[in-house]
């Protein structure tokens, strides 16, 4: 393919996340051309395609892949459909950019990854908070060692969802969403935290269903030990009226904080030197540019990787890390003990399902009556 030619892109799923975020990001990127939209609802697929000036609309992913031959497929379906659409696209030779959470389980994630080629196509996942300028600058500080070692961190996703939110049939069900706020909401901030702090080694978690009528938890909390020795405290809630997404990183030489809701720019960040740090040492701490975290920002990085034929960020082991932490949190909360990362092998029941294959045990751990009691 001519390197200057637009990347032929198809979108699977024509719901709110596609119409409101993915399609505008694609339409605004000069390197991507939207060639098809697919959705199980034919009328919705056609309406969204018309809205964005796309000729082809489909109800079947395989038919779309055969007819449109896209280079890149954006998977914007509910989580339960991620695995099948991703595998179909990879097998057709297309790169994939899939919404979070990547998959319902580590087993599904690894199955999807097995359909990648050694040199592509690759499947990457929507973790857009990594790609704002401040997040990128902080990662560079870690690479350069300019702030010292990370010691303590906090990562809190405190959101509010009322009862009506859960009327959508696939939400907060093990079979279709894979979990509650730990899986579908807090994973964004946890991914950003891990992209800064690196791999984790052990987690101790508690979860509960306190106020919403769901199969899953509506709150979770955890303490995570990182391989570096640093400690991180996590909270995920859908019961918090003053919504906030908050991360704080305490390094030897600085505290770096961000508080936002669904996306940040540089103004949301605060950089505080330690008392022993001379102010002249902080002149180049801040980002050189101001780019908000967004799907569009991640898309630009993905397009660059596609052009160069290299694995993009938030794919492979780098895309798996936060999902693995989620699995460890569920295992810890349901079994009532600390869990080491090394336990999450293919033989572990939490490798195949976030509830360990036992929804009744999960219900008891979350303070509910088991459905089959």
UniProtKB/TrEMBL annotation:
Domain called GFO/IDH/MocA-like oxidoreductase: residue spans: 136-244
GO molecular function annotations of the record: nucleotide binding
Coiled-coil region: none
Annotated Gene3D superfamilies: Dihydrodipicolinate Reductase, domain 2, NAD(P)-binding Rossmann-like Domain
Domain Gfo/Idh/MocA-like oxidoreductase N-terminal: from-to ranges: 7-115
UniProt keyword terms in alphabetical order: NAD
Protein name: Putative dehydrogenase
Organism: Microbacterium thalassium
């Amino acid at each position: 393919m001519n390197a200057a030619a637009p990347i032929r892109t198809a979108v699977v799923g024509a719901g709110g996340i596609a119409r409101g975020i993915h399609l505008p990001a694609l339409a605004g990127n000069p390197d991507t051309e939207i060639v098809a939209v697919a959705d199980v609802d034919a009328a919705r697929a056609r309406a969204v395609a018309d809205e964005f000036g796309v000729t082809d609309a489909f109800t079947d992913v395989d038919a779309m892949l055969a007819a449109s031959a896209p280079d890149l497929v954006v998977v914007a379906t509910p989580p339960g459909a991620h695995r099948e659409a991703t595998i179909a696209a990879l097998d057709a030779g297309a790169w994939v950019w899939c919404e979070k959470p990547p998959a319902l389980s580590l087993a599904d994630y690894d199955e999807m990854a097995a359909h990648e080629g050694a040199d592509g196509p690759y499947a990457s996942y929507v973790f857009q908070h990594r790609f704002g300028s401040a997040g990128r600058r902080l990662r560079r500080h870690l690479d350069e060692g300019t702030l010292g070692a990370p010691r303590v961190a906090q990562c809190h996703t405190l959101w509010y969802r009322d009862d009506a939110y859960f009327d959508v049939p696939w939400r907060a069900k093990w079979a279709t969403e894979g979990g509650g706020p730990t899986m579908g909401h807090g994973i964004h901030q946890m991914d950003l935290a891990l992209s800064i702090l690196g791999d984790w080694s052990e987690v101790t978690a508690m979860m509960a269903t306190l106020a919403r009528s769901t199969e899953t938890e509506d709150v979770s909390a955890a303490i995570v030990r990182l391989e570096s020795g640093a400690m991180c405290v996590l909270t995920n809630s859908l019961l918090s009226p003053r919504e906030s997404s908050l991360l704080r990183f305490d390094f030897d030489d600085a505290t770096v904080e961000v508080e936002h809701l669904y996306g940040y720019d540089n103004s949301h960040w605060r950089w505080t030197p330690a008392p022993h740090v001379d102010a002249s040492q902080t002149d180049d701490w801040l980002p050189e540019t101001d780019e908000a975290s967004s799907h569009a920002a991640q898309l630009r990085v993905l397009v660059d990787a596609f052009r160069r034929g290299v694995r993009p960020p938030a794919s492979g082991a780098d895309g798996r890390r936060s999902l693995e932490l989620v699995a460890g949190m569920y295992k810890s909360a349901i079994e009532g003990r600390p869990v080491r990362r090394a336990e999450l092998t293919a033989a572990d029941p939490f490798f195949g399902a976030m509830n360990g294959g036992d929804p009744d045990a999960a219900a008891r751990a979350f303070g509910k009556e088991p459905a089959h009691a």
